[in-house]
Amino acid sequence: MRPSGRALDELRPVSIEVGVTRHAEGSCLIRMGDTHVLCTATIEDKPPPFLKNTGLGWVTAEYGMLPRATNTRMRREAAAGKQSGRTQEIQRLIGRALRAGVDRSALGERQIVIDCDVIQADGGTRCASITGGWVALRLAVNRLLKAGSITSDPILDHVCAVSCGIYAGQPVADLDYAEDSVAGTDGNFVLTGRGRLIEVQMSAEGATFSRDEMSALLDLSDAAAKTLLAAQAEAVGS
Fold first, then answer.
1. What is the pTM of this model?
2. Measuring CA to CA, which residue among 86, 59, 100 is closest to residue 191?
3. Which segments are annotated as binding site for phosphate?
4. Binding residue positions
5. Vertex 177, ends 181 and 185: CA angle to 5°?
């Protein structure tokens, strides 16, 4: 029995509310159970310096957790004067994941920055950030298309992510913190709308895992993606 009482393949309730900030070109608040992440997209009309005069655009991400996103207050990283290694790793993952679903030549020489701010954390924050970040990106690109700034849609496919792991000897989908903190194996799976894999992060936290267990987690992630993709489609109206 999972602590939440969910079935092994059951996700936490998922909701995506769009247009939650006034100024960002695209924004949403994604809730996966008690994990809540604010995702915003900002369009910058020039690319990073290393892409100047290449005709290519760029999508990047920044990630952070508010001080009381967890049960005890965390010090702001800005106050410490540097980002943690965890923060840097997660925001690079989000950027890589979202770029995999974009035709950068169709985007043109501009950059879209996705900011993912965790308001409340209960496991799976990086996965929620990728899933919500894609919605914010889609909304920002819609604005470019409507304005005529670009003529061809650079979004190649949906991108979403889900955590799956081995909890109490059983493969389970969408781990919350109570499961993630003691899981024998923890994995993050980033997928496209067509079911293609972008990235898989798996590690044995307390026990090694078999190839069959890895296959079971891949199957769980594939099934879970269908729910996340449907939530994205409903949020953006397509």
1. 0.97
2. 100
3. 86, 124-126
4. 86, 124-126
5. 45
